[in-house]
Design a protein that fits this description.
It holds the Pfam family 5-FTHF_cyc-lig. The protein is 25% helix and 24% strand. By secondary structure, it is of the alpha/beta class. The protein has a single domain, classed as NagB/RpiA/CoA transferase-like (Rossmann fold, 3-Layer(aba) Sandwich), CATH 3.40.50. The strands form 3 sheets. It has a 7-stranded mixed beta sheet. A 3-stranded mixed beta sheet has the order 9-8-11. A two-stranded antiparallel sheet has the order 4-5. 32% of the residues are buried.
Length: 180
């Protein structure tokens, strides 16, 4: 299936999803991973309404004295990660994503763990269907740290229903509640 068709299909399902039980399970599983426990720095998005809420992840990281870095789009093909804390000022960009307007950037390779967003993931190859900008595919190409994605029952597929391209990057670990 074409990626844009898959995105529309998945987006329609996400709009009516009550996934609170799934999500709490995902958080608990994440916080018990070695990758989480060993990381002193976490890269994570500031979630939108259709994504798994990242606020509990950010709060847990900050409460455990982990540095948190969130992405900021700097042009059509690049983003940088900026340190996030309680003083960080945010602005919603034209894509509807909150981004920091102040704070120090960091080389992505210095972040221990990236929590990778996505519309969908597959169990067979750890493929991810992103939101169409390719930002994370470009970041993940040479990223040496650990990558984890969280997938509720709507986001998790046994096999990709979308076309996987050569430039698409997999995620090391997908924590999921169950799949179709």
């Amino acid at each position: 299936m074409d990626k844009s068709v898959a995105r529309k299909e998945i987006l329609n399902k996400l709009k009516n999803l009550d996934n609170q039980e799934d999500v709490q399970y995902l958080y608990n599983q994440l916080f018990e991973t070695e990758e989480w426990m060993n990381a002193s720095s976490i890269g994570v998005t500031l979630s939108t309404d259709i994504e798994i809420d990242t606020k509990p992840i950010i709060d847990m990281a900050l409460n455990h004295n982990k540095k948190v870095y969130v992405p900021k789009v700097i042009n059509k093909s690049d983003m940088e990660f900026i340190e996030y804390n309680n003083e960080t000022k945010l602005l919603v960009n034209k894509m509807g994503i909150a981004e920091p307007i102040n704070g120090d950037g960091i080389d992505i390779n210095q972040i221990d763990l990236l929590i990778v967003p996505g519309m969908a993931f597959d169990m067979s190859n750890n493929n991810r269907l992103g939101y169409g900008g390719g930002y994370y595919d470009r970041v993940l190409v040479d990223y040496p740290g650990n990558t984890i994605a969280l997938a509720d029952r709507i986001r998790m597929y046994e096999k990709s229903i979308w076309k996987v391209d050569d430039f698409d990057q997999q995620v090391e670990t997908i924590i999921h509640s169950n799949f179709k």
